[in-house]
Amino acid sequence: MTSPEPFLPPDPKTAAGSRIADFARWAARHKDAEGIEDPTDYQALHRWSVTDLEGFWAAVWEYFDIDATTPYEQVLAEETMPGARWFPGATLNYAHHALRNLHPDAPAKGPHSPRREQHPSEPEGRPPITPASSRRLRRATGPMRSSDPREMHRRRWRRPGARPGSRNGARLA
Known about the structure:
The protein is mainly α. It has helices spanning 12-16, 19-30, 42-51, 53-63, 94-99, 134-140, 149-154, and strands spanning 76-78, 85-86.
């Protein structure tokens, strides 16, 4: 079975400068990822991701420098779907990862974030939302960014049913 052609393939310069191409170059150098001669060969990257699940995902973990509080015991403990168990034993903190590379004085809301329009139900003259600095965002999320999940729970981040190991999600726009 052949893969369909992308609907809007990127131009070669954009593809070569993409994060996925950088990952492919890194993997070819450091992980001996077989078959990835061209970092923009997405079929080769996909083939590696499905034929060597553990090697591929361990490389993703390393490339993105996942900062786990406790390391994983193995990459894939259970391969059956549904129910695959990825990186068992690892604990990590999403808030820490989302904020760790922000400069303290940089606005947390980037230049490509959508502008908030005033909703018709809101009172006139409501001040516009201004972007928070990453320093302010870090201070506000401090209890959630603890490297120790038990400490995170002991501090102010509590909600009914939250405990170490709870799964929580967020959306970064």
